[in-house]
Amino acid sequence: DDGSLLYLNNQVVVDNDGQHGMVEKSGTAALKAGYHEIIVRYFEATGGDDLKVMWESEKFDRQPVPDAVLFHVPKK
């Protein structure tokens, strides 16, 4: 809410850009085991403020991405 883009390994997977209210968008990506870069760009203009990043696979139902699988790598 209001606009966002989700990148996975430098590819746009979810394009929910543009000023609007809360709208759910989805995308798919085939991943191999290992680490993958995730970038979420978003902005807030007016109204409510909310952002949810969910995931699902053949092994589990859709759910928020757990903090335990995320980490930050500082830019050099």
How would you portray this structure in words?
The radius of gyration is 13 Å and the shape is globular. It is built from no helices and five strands. The protein has strands at 2-8, 11-20, 38-43, 54-55, 63-64. Strands 2-1-3 form a three-stranded antiparallel β-sheet, with no helix packed on it. Strands 4-5 form a two-stranded antiparallel ribbon. It is mostly beta strands and 76 residues long.
Describe the structure concisely for a colleague.
It is built from no helices and 5 strands. By secondary structure, it is mainly β.
List its salient traits.
76 residues, mainly beta, three-stranded antiparallel β-sheet, two-stranded antiparallel sheet, 5 strands, 36% strand
List the helices and strands and how they pair.
Layout lengths: L1 E7 L2 E10 L17 E6 L10 E2 L7 E2 L12
Antiparallel strand pairs: 1-2, 1-3, 4-5
Coarse morphology? globular
- Order of SSEs, N→C? EEEEE
State the end-to-end CA separation.
31 Å
Binned, the helix content reads: under 10%
Low-confidence stretches: none
Strand order of the largest sheet: 2-1-3
Report the radius of gyration as a whole number of Å.
13 Å
Number of helices: 0
Mean pLDDT: 87
Biggest sheet details: 3 strands, antiparallel
* SSE class: mainly beta
Question: Based on DSSP secondary structure assignment, what is the total number of beta strands?
Answer: 5
Strand coverage percent: 35-45%
